[in-house]
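Continuing the batch. This is chain 6 of the set; chains 1 through 5 are on the previous pages. Same settings as before, nothing changed between runs. Recording input and output for traceability.
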Amino acid sequence: MIQIYHNPRCGKSRNCLAFIKESEKEFEVINYLDNVPTFDELKNLIQKLNFEPLALVRQKEKIWIENFKNKPLTNDEIIQAMVSNPILIERPIVIKGNKAIIGRDLDNVTDFL
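Output for chain 6:
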């Protein structure tokens, strides 16, 4: 089953969700701001994305700039920052099996599904 980490206030996330609905594939929506992933869940998700944790951070968010930017953080500290402040997690994230992508570009989502 396809999963989408979704933020309903984000236009890119809404577009991606609408696209997945149109695909008529079975999917699950995870509103990650209300259902915050655990440290282990987020670490597993980062592995599926094949990213370094920093690549998943929305680095222009005020929380990041004021509290974390330019600080020497370990990967685990970056993951914990996202768990503690889920608004920092890039969105939308589309998961299928053991792979995941950032679904901001619908062409990539098409190829992924």
